Amino acid sequence: MQAPAKSDRLYYLDAVRAFALLLGIVFHASLSFTPMFIGWAVMDISTSPLISIFMMISHSFRMELFFLIAGFFSHMTFHKRGFRGFAKSRLTRIAIPFIIGWFILYPLIVSGWVMGAASLRGDVNILEGLKVGFQSLNTLPSGILVGSHLWFLYYILIISAATLALRGLVALSPKLHTRLVFLADRSSQWLVQFRFRLLLLSAPIACGIWFMSHWGMDTPDKSLIPHLPTFFIYGGFFVFGWFLHRQAHLLEALSALSWTRCFNCLGSIAAIIGLAKFEGDYTHEHYALFKSGFAFAYAYTMLSLVFLSIGLFKKYCDRPNRLLRYIADSSYWLYLVHLPAVVWLQVAFAELPFHWSVKLIAISSLTVGLSLLVYDLLVRPTLIGKTLNGARKKSRLLRLALPDDKRSASPPAFSDKPTA
């Protein structure tokens, strides 16, 4: 009897991608607890400077981590399905959720801001907030597809298109294509072996950070015209992930864990925390020097946390696990729908006399819990689940509700195979 073929599924990368998305939910849930007003929908009565530090650190790497993994899996899809299969995947799993999701979620997000403003006057009206939120669609086409957290889908689309266009141009000359692929592979190998690779990679990223509108990564959600600094940074991580899939062993080398890397990361985090206080001190004689130092330390922190995160998940999650697989499958849906729920809950919790940590845990948990319930019952086994995950899958909750004898005998949900 032949042994079953070993699965080539990279379980830990599924977990890494889920982590990046779930961290985004906690990030948004924390925004109402900053000690200074940042233009968010609502400001809680309980705040902490620790939230500002958490925001700066988590925002420095979570989307870069996501785009690196997206590039890795994009090359995997392109390699398996070819150009047409890849384009179809981008259309069904990214473009459709982006467009349909925006029209559903944007009015709900606007309503959250309306209710947040009303809460400052102690006069929250949910129906009025919803009314104003959906009336915001009357201004279309002005502002269409912008002003939401779904900007990352748009950037994946345009970065994927740019990558394919560049690849297509290079492929017009087979000789040039072969030479450039060889050069890219050798450069990747050299980079992994170079002792000071993170310092080298930090330099171009720091240049992009310098041109942001504030110290740190901008959120390019205001326009469909690409914001060039963020486009090149996220695009760089995507393309790097694309090339790493050609030599997957290099990713393991880049993400190898060591105490030295951990201490270097902590040092760069301490640097950005210490330098961030000079952001508004434009008249300081060393302002440009401080900004340059912050940009470089921020870039180093970004790279360190990206690869340390991958290394940690490689060490602890590189094996089949039903719970992790379920979370990985649901994480895309959770991130797509979370923001209206987060903002509404922030408004509801804003005046309650509880510690900010209790509220943050409650808002994050309720958002994930309610979204998971909807996912399991209404998304996972339906066409929506097929669109987001590539296949319909059985509801776990409904399966648990079945008697033991029927649970084991029940046919797969939405199976195309005939049953007896």
Automatic annotation (TrEMBL):
Q: Which Pfam families match?
A: Acyl_transf_3
Keyword annotations from UniProtKB, A to Z: Acyltransferase, Membrane, Transferase, Transmembrane, Transmembrane helix
Query: One GO molecular function term?
Result: acyltransferase activity, transferring groups other than amino-acyl groups
Any transmembrane segments, and where?
21-43, 49-73, 94-115, 152-173, 194-212, 224-244, 256-275, 295-313, 333-350, 356-378
Start and end residues of each Acyltransferase domain: 11-375
Q: What is this protein called?
A: Acyltransferase family protein
